[in-house]
Specification:
Blueprint (H helix, E strand, L loop, with lengths): L2 H6 L13 H9 L3 H8 L3 E6 L1 H4 L2 H4 L5 H9 L2 E3 L4 H7 L5 E4 L6 E9 L2 E8 L2 E12 L2 E6 L10 H7 L4 H9 L12 E7 L1 H10 L1 H7 L5 H11 E4 L5 H11 L3 E4 L4 E14 L6 E9 L2 E12 L2 E6 L15
Parallel strand pairs: 1-7, 8-14
Antiparallel strand pairs: 1-2, 3-4, 4-5, 5-6, 6-7, 8-9, 10-11, 11-12, 12-13, 13-14
Helix pairs in contact: 9-12, 10-11
InterPro entries: Adhesion/Biosynth-related, FAS1_dom_sf, FAS1_domain
Organism: Ceratitis capitata (Mediterranean fruit fly)
Pfam families: Fasciclin
Length: 328
């Protein structure tokens, strides 16, 4: 059967009849059924389908009444083209795989880790990390992967997201040295955190080997904290990438954002063709931050959390002179 026919097969099922995706199908139909029509028209397709239990989460149920929001969430679970586990492995050979969805300018990020000799595949979308429960449910025109959470409805704080996301482990580790991370669980504040991904810190190891080595030693926690404070904006609102682009355009130059001790001066712009897929044939618009005359690519914009937003960046806002130790 096709992916559409496979989903329609759950129409009359209940949980006792192994209707694993019954609620997913019902949400589509309760929202008018247009998403199912889109799926039928896409040809080759891959669906990340949340299980019945995933839809029962309180945070998810609170959003089901918003038709526009639900449509956006459903589209975040749809990928054009066939994507099976073998291809996810291939994409993860050198880095965490980034895959565009049919939801405009929204991407999924696949990661593979080994637990007790078995591969566990996780996928991140819209601030939510989900685990693939059943992969490669093959249909004539694509694949369905059953996941344990609904993507796009955040349920973690900035700290919890930082701690659980495999792409942000080095930044989390640096924050632990100086207790910098503790504040990120505060739900009464709104954080905008520019988080260097692990690969970003690896780049500094090549550019500033001595500085990188010191940063990842607990004895230099004062320096690492000062650098992280530069990346954390604390205000009464969060700043999406679109917000920052608009503010930059309005000012005609850089904008000042309030940080823990001082302010962060950045210019944020969009660049066409800034991001591309592994083949290099498909390009899309991305964001670039200019800080201290350096251009820093935004790898993952607008990762939502319950108390803020994270922008994953490709290089830290770091200078070699940030870690200077006087001899004695």
């Amino acid at each position: 059967s096709t992916v559409t026919q496979f989903l329609q097969s759950f129409k009359l099922m209940n949980d006792n009849e192994n209707g694993a995706l019954r609620k997913f199908y019902n949400v589509i139909m309760d929202n008018g059924g247009e998403v199912l029509t889109d799926i039928s028209n896409l040809g080759e397709i891959t669906i990340l389908a949340p299980s019945n239990d995933a839809w029962a989460a309180k945070s998810v149920e609170n959003n089901l009444g918003n038709r526009e929001k639900v449509r956006s969430i459903l589209n975040m679970h749809i990928i054009k083209g066939k994507l099976n586990v073998a291809q996810i492995h291939q994409k993860n050979a050198k880095m965490i795989a980034q895959v565009p969805t049919v939801n405009d300018r929204t991407f999924l990020y696949f990661n593979i880790r080994n637990e007790n000799g078995e591969d566990v595949i996780t996928v991140e979308g819209g601030g939510v990390n989900a685990t693939v429960l059943q992969a490669d449910v093959a249909q004539t025109n694509g694949y369905v992967h059953i996941i344990d959470k609904v993507l796009g409805i955040p349920y973690t704080t900035v700290l919890e997201k930082l701690e659980t996301d495999p792409m942000m482990s080095d930044t989390f580790k640096l924050g632990q040295f100086s207790d910098f991370n503790n504040q990120l669980n505060n739900t009464k504040r709104r954080f905008t955190y520019f988080v260097p991904r692990d690969k970003a810190w690896q780049k500094t190891k090549l550019d500033y080997p001595s500085t990188h080595k010191k940063l990842f030693m607990e004895d230099f926690s004062y320096h690492s904290r000062s650098i992280l404070e530069r990346h954390l904006v604390i205000a009464d609102k969060v700043y999406t990438m679109n917000d920052l682009v608009a503010m930059t355009a309005e000012s005609g130059d850089s904008v000042l954002l309030p940080t823990y001790r001082d302010s962060l001066k950045v210019k944020v712009e969009e660049e066409a063709g800034h991001l591309h897929d592994d083949s290099g044939l498909i390009e899309w618009t991305g964001y670039v931050i200019t800080w201290n005359f350096k251009k820093i690519n935004v790898y993952r914009p607008d990762v939502e959390c319950t108390n803020g937003i994270i922008h994953v960046i490709d290089y830290p806002m770091l200078e070699e002179r940030d870690v200077v130790v006087n001899g004695g």
